Amino acid sequence: MLSKQKLFALGFQHVMAMYAGAIAVPLIVGGALHLTPAQMAYLVAADLFTCGIATLLQIMGTRFFGSRLPVILGCTFTAVGPIIAIASTSNLATAYGAIILSGIFVVLAAPLYGKLLRFFPTVVTGSVVTIIGLSLIPVAMNNVAGGQGSADFGQPRNLLLALVTLLVILLVNRVAKGFLRSISVLIGLFAGTVVAYAMGMVHFAAVADASWVSVAQPFYFGKPEFSIMAVCTMIIVNIVSMVESTGVYLAVGKAIDQKVEQKQIVNGLRSEGLAIMLGGIFNAFPYTAFSQNVGLISLTRVKSRNVIFAAGGIMVVLGLLPKLAALTTVIPNAVLGGAMIVMFGSVAASGMSILSEVDLRKESNLLIAACSIAVGLGSAVLPQMFDQLPSFAKMLLQNGIVSGSIMAIVLNIVLTRKQRESAQGVNVSEVPQKV
Q: What residue intervals traverse the membrane (predicted)?
């Protein structure tokens, strides 16, 4: 049984692992829509608050809601473009109306989606989990260099910070035991930030400017408005998120050595639908299972749901206390990148471990794994290749996890069917004929 202090430290480590991704979406959307500083501050606080509530809903679980898996929910990047597009052509109230209705769609569609899980045998699962890890590597490397678009992108000091963070994490994992080993990522982030402070790369201006208290309020940007096209767009976004979340659930199951049942995935998706509705009500964002935290579970070997429960509680508090939330933003991107290398690499390694259970000497299995991983990684590294396609196809295929999953599922259906037909043909020919 973990003490309260250990639970807090392990939960805070999970928050740090997903924090950059959690606040990136409100910052991007707010910047694109030219929101005021007060509105931006609300957007970040509301997002963190709702992230926490969504995670708690996922962890606690009831008869119909919550997977009861150690999964953290965060805002999906897939929704960034559509929200900006909807709000730019109409207003934010229309975007949030679409988010609310799309959340209802996810709740209602989850059982039907669950019936499709028979198309996820081990070879597909292993390929999808591998794709999740590999598609996140470019994110890690961008952070290692200082963050995409930063003025000092690729500067040697950023690379040095990432290396220091990575080495500290590896050293703690190699030398320490027990609890210290389980918070190796947190120790690495702290050490990297201390070094960055000594180099003059840590600034506390944002902390000083942040308010002490902020309470998320329903319909901050006005009462929701509804547009059929906007609703359809957000439904497509959430269908993409459902596929992505399925891969995350399966990856978490592998990390905690637990077989994930269909009912868990359906209940988890229902919970995500409820979280999406809350995101619309509190004027935050659509939510999905965060793959960033899967690698942390694999690395620390801490499988307790109580840790994720603690992480959810910490996010709720950060959402209510913006000054504390701002304190966590002082960690440089390069430091986060050094930690991401270990975490995201661990996810990819978990996928490879699943594939090791598959007989890759069978040509069908080899083709499924090879093609799906190649397509998924290619989409993640070069998403602009789909820029000339219609918006629906573009949204679907630019997500490496989704495009790779679709490829794996389709190849599994086609190749296994051909294999069965071939086997039946052989059996018929081998039946002795009467003369």
A: 7-33, 39-57, 69-87, 93-112, 119-139, 159-176, 183-206, 226-252, 307-328, 334-354, 366-386, 392-415
Phi–psi pair at 287, nearest 5 degrees: -120, 150
Residues 6+ apart with CB under 8 A from 177: none
SS3 44: helix
Query: Cα–Cα distance between 416 and 112 in angstroms, integer?
Result: 23
Model confidence at 431, in pLDDT bands (50, 70, 90)? very low
Q: Locate all alpha helices (DSSP H) within 282-362, ordered by sequence.
A: 294-300, 305-320, 322-327, 333-355
Q: Could you tell me the two tokens for 271?
A: 């919970």
Query: Which of 74-83, 269-278, 300-309, 336-345 holds the top average pLDDT?
Result: 269-278
d(CA 396, CA 434): 55
Question: Are the beta carbons of 25 and 75 closer than 8 angstroms?
Answer: yes
Judge whether 30 and 221 are in contact, CB under 8 Å: no
Quick one: average pLDDT of 180-200? 87
Cβ count near 148 (within 10 Å): 12
- Compute φ and ψ for 288, nearest 5 degrees: -145, 165
Burial annotation 192-213 (CB, 10 A radius, 16+ → b, else e): bbebbeeeebeeeeebeebeee
pLDDT at 420: 61
Q: Are 238 and 269 in contact (CB under 8 A)?
A: no
Residue 289: φ, ψ to 5°: -65, 130
Amino acid in the structure at residue 73: L
Give residue 310's pLDDT: 92
Residue type, 12: F
Lowest mean pLDDT among 58-72, 128-142, 318-332: 318-332
Closest CA to 237 of 34, 119, 381, 86: 86
Q: What's phi and psi for 41, nearest 5 deg?
A: -60, -40
Which tens digits make up the pLDDT trace of 368-401? 999 999 998 998 888 888 888 887 777 678 778 7
d(CA 184, CA 346): 14
pTM here is 0.73
Any residues with CB less than 8 A from the CB of 312 and at least 6 apart, and which?
11, 51, 52, 53, 54, 55, 56, 59, 72
- Looking at this protein, which amino acid is placed at residue 356? S
Contact between residue 350 and residue 251 where contact means Cβ atoms under 8 Å apart: yes
Residue 270's alpha-carbon distances to 112, 262, 275, in angstroms, are 11, 12, 9
Is residue 290 within 8 Å of residue 72, measured between CB atoms?
yes
- Using CA atoms, how far apart are residues 223 and 100, in angstroms rounded to an integer? 12
